[in-house]
Amino acid sequence: MTDEKKRGRVTWTLRYTILNAAYFSAFCTLHAYAAVYLLAKGMTNTQVGILLAVSNILSAVLQPVIAGIIDKPGFLTNKLFIIISVIVIMIGSAVLLVIPDSIAVIFVVYALIYTVQFVYQPVLTALCFEYQKKGCDIVYGLARGLGSTGFAITSLFIGSAVEKNGVSILLWMNIAVMIISLAAILTFRADDPGDDAISEDNTAHKAHNSFSSFAKTYPAFMPFLIGTICFFFGHNMINDFMIVIIRNLGGGETQLGYATFLQAILELPVMAAIGIVLKKFSADKLLIFSGMAFFAKILILMFATNMIGLYASQSFQLFAYAVFIPAGAYYVSTTMEELDQVKGQAYITSAITVGGVFSNLISGVILDNSGIFMMLLTGTVVCAVGVVVTFTGMKKLPHHVA
Fold first, then answer.
1. Where in the chain is the domain with CATH 1.20.1250.20?
2. What is the per-residue pLDDT across 101-157, written as a single tens digit (0 to 9) for each?
3. 339 C-beta neighbours (distance < 10 Å), count
4. What is this structure's pTM?
5. Domain 1-204, CATH among 3.30.450.20, 1.20.1250.20, 3.30.70.120, 1.10.700.10
């Protein structure tokens, strides 16, 4: 590789890394601390639950819809949608800073920015592969892993910052990282010598915008989405009720911080090396492997009797989430027509969101009525079903198009 190509790889990967780190830093303040902010503003637990459920359902519905619009040739591109999303979150956070505390207004505005941030996550992934096809050398796994590091670092200091300065610091943080995101996305400009060729190629293919057409075209993808829902049912169950599990094992908020940091920081080395791993193992095999790791993670936690058991469970983040996210992105990029790739990324994110919604609705009820063990047993069984469905579905792989 020439020095010029090396500089190009570093420059483009750095740009995309900044976008990811800013996104997941805001994900920490906007999503992980949603209950902290909303409860401090006077909402009840029930109101918080309704807001989060509505936002998750909206984002699951809107992700493939927006992706379908972006996949069609027209004015709305990945870059433009990210710019619009960043500005909406920035303005929404500013509005929450200046308006009087009104539950109704806070509900609407927070639901809006929460939903928008979820909706542009698959678009951020699609942006990378779009610019790779334009000749921009971006190391996706490294940039995505450093994005998780942004979440980990933010989670280390934001809790104490909220204790000292109040929940408004979360909104200021949102605005700051959105400004960084806007500055970074505006640098995404690339000359694409293959534009004409790509346009001609695209005219030979039809975008599959209806769900039935998409399912028929990519037969392995639908069972994989069912598997994804199952994996993230268990994954979100652990994350949502982590403090309850930790207290049952003799820990507290300090151990919660350690556990959250551990699973986030462990994602970096695997995601950074995923490009090398994919040269030896195909994306579909890695997705099956990651599903088995999701299953092992919750199985170990089910039988944990102390914090060592919990940390052992969390270490499987190395093989579960850290493998699933980049492998899923590469799977879409290599098995789907270009006009369907944003939708493919969006369907994965929607499935992840749906898994979280089901977890929110079911896990708490089981926990209240039957205890932690039965909750984790339910998650273990659901994850096992996901492994079987995904393994079976991947036998129906289509030909590779990239």
1. 1-204, 205-402
2. 889 999 999 999 999 999 998 899 889 988 988 888 898 888 988 888 888 888 778
3. 19
4. 0.77
5. 1.20.1250.20
